[in-house]
Description:
The protein is built from one helix and four strands. By secondary structure, the protein is mostly loops. The relative contact order is 0.13. The model is unreliable at about 1-25 (pLDDT under 50).
Amino acid sequence: MEIPIRGIVGTYYSRFGGNVGTNLAFPACAQGQFQCADGSKCIARTLFQNGNVDCPDGSDEECTTSQFACKCGAVRCVAEKFVMDGNWDCEDGSDEFIENE
Length: 101
């Protein structure tokens, strides 16, 4: 029996091109909880966007205006001083290969 995907996990996978198939099912979080985008855990809703990363993938926090948001899927924020410094801080190296928009 599969437990339906709900909330941010379904949004995450459709937004970032993941395949939400029959072999991908995460348990739904209890009321008052937020499910991390990678499905690894549920955190209290009060921890969502509180300035501290509580999900292993960082999906409970948004990047600030002084941070670079990695393009690799899950929210990962890199301080501006580490962007274009010759070192990959994002899994996909997107902090080193900035496209002109």
